[in-house]
Amino acid sequence: MTSNLRRIMIMGVGLASSLVLAGCAGSSSMEPGGQPPTMPKTSTGPEIINPKNAAALDVCGLLSSEAATKLGVKPGGEKNSNSLNPAVPDGCMWESPDGGGKKIGFTAIDGRSIKTYYKKSHSYTDFEKITVAGHPAVRANKTDPMTGGSCDIYLASKKNQVVYSYARTPKVGEVNPCDLSKQALELSVSSWPTAK
User: Would you list the DSSP string of 96-146?
Assistant: First the structure.
């Protein structure tokens, strides 16, 4: 390589480096006081202090016989499939022994984060972030639970797993079905296996 060509290449690299440095210096990347900017923290979602693996149980084992009796439904619920979406895991439904219309249902859904519901909060008429048995949860309903007679709560049992709790009451407008849905979870979470 000739010495002139070598000088031109060195000057070209030097000039390109100078332009890059000048471009960086042109927009100050320092906060007032000479500190580098702080990077925005990415949200990893709410912390789950005592994670549980609800999917490790048979879905009808999520509500104990004792809890079912306290809630006024028959122990030993009935497993059911989601006919609208076969990709959703089986659920279990417990009903009042007298056929009175009270129902409680659970479904454990692996691979879904509670953040899914946070991001879609605008699509629910009734939406509230709550805590149930020390776990982050959301009340997420397309209609008003008091006028519709049913309530959906989604509880983060562990990272990337939610338990869907459904409650229906025959006393529409008199009894808040969300209280029943929440109580079913509160009576159940402690009996689920600890997540590893």
Answer: -TT--S-EEEEEEEET--THHHHHTGGG-SEEEEEEETTEEEEEEESS-HH
